[in-house]
Design goal:
The complex is a heterodimer of chains A (342) and B (397). With 342 residues, chain A is an alpha/beta fold. Chain A has helices at residues 24-38, 62-66, 78-91, 109-116, 119-122, 152-156, 169-181, 230-243, 262-271, 286-297, 322-325, 329-341, and strands spanning 19-23, 42-46, 71-73, 94-98, 132-137, 162-165, 186-191, 198-202, 214-217, 222-226, 248-252, 255-257, 274-281, 307-311. In chain A, the strands form 3 sheets. Chain A has a 7-stranded mixed sheet, sandwiched between helices. In chain A, helix 1 packs parallel to helix 7, helix 3 packs parallel to helix 4 (109-116) and helix 8 packs across helix 12 (329-341). Helix content of chain B is 41%, strand content 8%. Chain B is α/β, with parallel strands linked by helices and 397 residues long. In chain B, helix 8 links the parallel strand 2 and strand 3. The radius of gyration of chain B is 22 Å and the shape is globular. Classes of the chains: A alpha/beta (342), B alpha/beta (397). At the A-B interface, helix 3, helix 4 and helix 5 of A face helix 7, helix 8 and helix 14 of B.
Chain lengths: 342, 397
C-alpha cells in the first residue's frame, strides 16, 4: 500500500513502475491516496465523495480504504463543508474539501473569504489553515447552468488564499500532494473537461514546486499563456501554428495566486508578443492582471499590445452555445495573427 | 445535577408555543419583557434572590463558589463599563457592551473545563474573562491596533468572530475533531461551546452548524444568548417559535435557561457539557437575557425600543439577585463587597492606563502573517511600500 510521497519516493517498493500512464482524474486520486497514507491527519470531505467516490470519481476507493472518519460524505451544504473544515484544521487536521462543481462554491464563499482567508492574518500566525478546496471548473462538457463556470478570479483576488490549477496528469498527481502539504489554504482548480486525458506521471519526483509556472513549449514569434483546461488548447494552437511556420512559446501558469510571471516576462522579452488564454470572463480577471503586470515589466519589449482570448462577459450560455463562448484553437490563432500583424 | 433522561421535547401534539406577539398596550407598558421566559424557563435564583427548585436541574453551590461568581460578574461589568467609557473619551473606536449578559456568560464560562474549547462572537467579554484572557487584551480590537492578540490554542478561546454565525460552523468542525481524536465518551472527554445571539439564528451557517453537529454527534453546546434585540430587530423578527424549540427539528435537546440567573446558567451548561463529553451531544441552550445597553457604542436604542422595557429588565438584574442572596444567606459581608469593588476599581485603572499607552502598530504590520508560507508577489508589494515610506525619512518630502 505504500504509495509515493514527496518525502519518501517509494513507488518502486510496490513493484509499480516509477513512470506510469494515467488520466488527470487518476492522478488526483492517486495523489490524494498518497497524501492520506503519508499523514493520518489528512481528511477528504464533500458531497458524495465516500461510497460513490465523487461524481467524477476523483475520490474513488478512498473511503473503502481509509474509512468513514477520514473520507466524509457530508451533508449537502457548501458553507458547512468549508466552515467545518476550518474547525477541523484548527483542531490539527488537514482537510481536503471537494466542491462538486464550481458553480456551487458560492454558498461557501463567505466562509472562504471571511474565515479561511483571514484567520492566519487575524491571529498573526497563531492559527494555521492547512486546507485544500478542490474545485472542478470550466466548461465544454455540455452541462446545465452552474456546471461550467470559471470563478477562479474571485479567489485570486482575495488576500490570504492561494490558487492553483493543474493541466496534466503529472501535475495533478504532484500538485494535489504539494497543496495538501502546504500550511496555507489553497483553492485547487481542476480542469473537469480534461479529467480523462492521459499522460505520463513520474511518481518518484515532483516536476516543479507548487507555485511555479512552467514553459511547456519554447518558441520565438509570440508567447501563449494559459492555465487549467486552456493549456491543451494553447498547445494545440502552437502545433497548428508551427505548420504555418510560426513558432509559439507556451507557458502553463499552474499558480494563479501568487502569480509566477518571471518566465512570462522572460518569454515576452524575447518574443515581444503575448496572448493570454482563459475560459473566464475577461473583465477584472486573472488575464487582466497578467496584461497589467506584463505591460509594467516588459513595456519596451512589447511589439504589440497584450491580447486576451477569453470567455465573454456574460453568464455562461446554454451548452449548445458553449463552443462559441469558449476559446478554441481558431480564436487563439486569430489572436496570434492580430498580434503578429500589429 | 439533573438526570438528562428526564428531559423531553414537547411532543408533536403539544400546542405550538409560538412567541406571542405583544399587544400595543403591552409594549407601551414595557411588558414584553415580563412574560418572556415561559413555563420551560429553567431558573434557580429568582430576581428577588430566592433559591427555587427545578425538577430537572439543580446545583450544589458553596458560599465561596457563589462569591466567586458574584465577583466575576461585577468585574466583567466593570470591564464593560470602563471600555464603554473609553470609547466615549475617544480612546476606542467602538465598544460592544455586554451589560446585562453577565450571568449568561459567567455561568457558561465557569461551566467549562480547561480542555473545553470556546468559539465566541464579538460580545463574549465574560467568556474571555473565564478563559483567562486579560481584559486589556480585548482593547486592541476596538482601538484598531490589532484583531485580537490572545493565543487561541493556549486559552482554548477562538478569536472573536464578527461575521454573524460563521463561528458556529467552525465550532462544529472543531467538535467533530474532538470526536475523531477519541476525546469523547467518558467523564474525561472534551467538549466545545459555541456562542451566538438571537439574530444569528437566522443565518444559514447556524442552521448548517446544527445539521453538522447533529449528524456527526459532535460534542458541541450551542449557547444562544437571546438578548431580545439584534441591533434594532426584536427576536420576533427572527423566529415564530421560541428559539430553544428549534433544536427539536434537528434531533437534539434545546433548553431555555434564565440567562440572568448565573446559577441556572451554570447548572444547565455544566449538564450540557457533560452530556457532550460523554457522547450525547449536541445540545442547544437558549439563555434568555437582555441587552441592557446599545448594540454597540455606535447604536442608539432609543430609536427602536422603549426605556420602560429596560427599566423592567433592571428589576431582573443578574448581579443584584446574587448580592441579595449572598446577604440573605449571610454568605458575604460588607468587607467582601468592598473588596470586590476595590478589585473592580483596580481593573478599571489598568484598562485606562493600558488603553492610552497602546502604540499604533508599525506600517509593515499591514503585510505581516497574511500567509503561513509567504507570497513573493505580496513581499514585492511590501518592499515597494516600505521603500516609499523610507523616502520620507530624509525629509525631502
Amino acid at each position: 500500500m505504500a504509495a509515493p510521497t514527496m518525502d519518501r519516493p517509494t513507488a518502486n517498493s510496490t513493484g509499480a513502475p516509477a513512470v506510469q500512464t494515467m488520466t488527470i482524474a487518476k492522478g488526483i486520486n492517486n495523489g490524494l491516496r498518497a497524501a492520506m497514507e503519508a499523514d493520518p491527519k489528512v481528511l477528504v470531505m464533500g458531497e458524495d465523495v465516500g461510497k460513490l467516490g465523487g461524481v467524477f470519481r476523483i475520490t474513488d476507493g478512498l473511503q473503502k480504504d481509509f474509512g468513514e472518519q477520514r473520507v466524509l460524505d457530508t451533508p449537502l451544504a457548501e458553507s458547512g463543508i468549508i466552515g467545518t473544515a476550518v474547525g477541523l484544521a484548527i483542531r490539527g487536521y488537514r482537510p481536503v474539501c471537494e466542491i462538486q462543481f464550481e458553480g456551487f462554491i458560492f454558498p461557501g464563499f463567505d466562509q472562504i473569504v471571511s474565515q479561511v482567508a483571514k484567520l492566519h492574518f487575524r491571529t498573526q500566525g497563531r492559527l494555521k489553515l492547512p486546507m485544500v478546496i478542490r474545485v472542478p471548473f470550466g466548461g465544454g462538457i455540455g452541462a446545465v447552468e452552474h456546471h461550467s463556470e470559471s470563478p477562479e478570479s474571485y479567489f485570486a483576488h482575495t488576500a490570504g488564499l492561494k490558487v492553483v490549477s493543474c493541466s496534466n496528469p503529472a501535475d495533478a498527481y504532484w500538485m494535489i500532494q504539494q497543496a495538501i502539504a502546504s500550511d496555507d489554504p489553497i483553492l485547487f482548480f481542476e480542469p473537469k473537461r480534461r479529467y480523462y486525458e492521459k499522460g505520463e506521471v513520474d511518481t518518484t519526483a515532483a516536476p516543479s514546486p507548487l507555485f511555479a509556472s512552467r514553459v511547456l513549449r519554447t518558441g520565438t514569434d509570440a508567447t501563449l499563456v494559459a492555465y487549467g483546461p486552456m493549456v491543451r488548447t494553447a498547445l494545440d494552437a502552437a502545433a497548428a501554428a508551427e505548420e504555418e511556420g510560426r513558432s509559439l512559446e507556451v507557458i502553463d501558469l499552474r499558480t494563479l495566486s501568487p502569480l509566477d510571471l518571471a518566465p512570462v516576462y522572460d518569454s515576452v522579452r524575447r518574443t515581444g508578443r503575448l496572448v493570454v488564454v482563459s475560459e473566464a470572463p475577461s473583465e477584472s480577471s486573472i488575464t487582466s492582471e497578467i496584461a497589467a503586470k506584463v505591460q509594467q515589466e516588459c513595456f519596451y519589449s512589447l511589439q504589440a499590445p497584450v491580447l486576451r482570448v477569453t470567455g465573454f462577459d456574460t453568464p455562461y450560455p446554454p451548452s449548445k452555445l458553449e463552443e462559441e463562448f469558449l476559446p478554441d484553437l481558431d480564436r487563439v490563432l486569430h489572436a496570434v495573427d492580430r498580434s503578429l500583424a500589429w | 445535577m439533573s438526570s438528562p433522561e428526564k428531559w423531553t421535547h414537547p411532543g408533536p401534539d403539544s400546542p405550538p408555543a409560538t412567541a406571542a406577539k405583544p399587544t400595543a398596550e403591552q409594549v407601551i407598558a414595557g411588558l414584553r419583557a415580563t412574560d418572556e421566559g415561559g413555563a420551560d424557563l429553567v431558573q434557580l435564583l429568582t430576581p428577588e434572590g430566592e433559591r427555587v427548585q427545578h425538577p430537572d436541574f439543580d446545583i450544589d453551590i458553596t458560599a465561596e463558589e457563589l462569591r466567586g461568581l458574584y465577583r466575576d460578574m461585577v468585574l466583567v461589568r466593570r470591564v464593560d463599563r470602563e471600555a464603554n467609557a473609553l470609547q466615549r473619551k475617544g480612546q476606542l473606536g467602538i465598544w460592544v457592551p455586554l451589560l446585562g449578559q453577565e450571568a449568561a456568560q459567567i455561568g457558561a464560562g465557569r461551566a467549562m473545563r480547561p480542555d473545553d474549547m470556546a468559539f465566541p462572537s464579538y460580545r463574549e467579554h465574560g467568556i474571555a474573562w473565564c478563559r483567562g484572557i486579560k481584559p486589556t487584551d480585548l482593547l486592541g480590537i476596538f482601538r484598531g491596533t490589532d484583531n485580537g492578540t490572545w493565543d487561541p490554542v493556549k486559552h482554548r478561546f477562538h478569536p472573536y468572530t464578527i461575521v454573524i454565525g460563521n463561528q458556529v460552523l467552525n465550532a462544529a468542525g472543531y467538535a467533530m475533531g474532538q470526536k475523531f481524536d477519541g476525546k469523547v465518551g467518558d467523564d474525561d472527554g472534551e467538549a466545545t461551546m459555541c456562542f451566538f445571539g438571537d439574530g444569528a439564528t437566522s443565518q444559514g451557517d447556524v442552521h448548517e452548524g446544527f445539521v453538522w453537529a447533529a449528524v456527526y454527534d459532535a460534542p458541541l453546546v450551542f449557547f444562544c444568548q437571546n438578548n431580545q434585540w439584534a441591533i434594532s430587530e426584536p427576536t420576533e423578527r427572527q423566529s415564530r417559535l421560541p428559539l430553544y424549540q428549534r433544536a427539536r427539528g434537528y434531533g437534539f435537546p434545546g433548553i431555555r435557561v434564565d440567562g440572568n440567573d448565573v446559577l441556572a446558567t451554570l447548572a444547565v451548561t455544566k449538564w450540557a457539557l457533560d452530556e457532550c463529553r460523554h457522547g450525547n451531544g449536541p445540545i442547544l441552550i437558549e439563555a434568555f437575557t437582555y441587552r441592557m445597553d446599545a448594540h454597540t457604542t455606535s447604536d442608539d436604542p432609543s430609536r427602536y425600543r422603549l426605556s420602560d422595557e429596560l427599566e423592567l429588565w433592571k428589576l431582573k438584574d443578574p448581579i443584584e439577585r446574587v448580592k441579595v442572596h449572598l446577604v440573605k444567606q449571610q454568605w458575604a459581608d460588607q468587607e467582601f463587597f468592598d473588596s470586590v469593588e476595590a478589585d473592580a476599581e483596580q481593573i478599571a485603572i489598568e484598562l485606562r492606563d493600558y488603553c492610552v499607552t497602546l502604540p499604533d502598530p508599525p506600517a509593515e504590520r499591514i503585510f505581516s502573517e497574511v500567509y503561513a508560507e509567504g507570497n513573493p508577489v505580496l513581499e514585492a508589494q511590501r518592499d515597494e511600500f516600505l521603500a516609499y515610506h523610507a523616502g520620507f525619512a530624509g525629509g525631502e518630502h
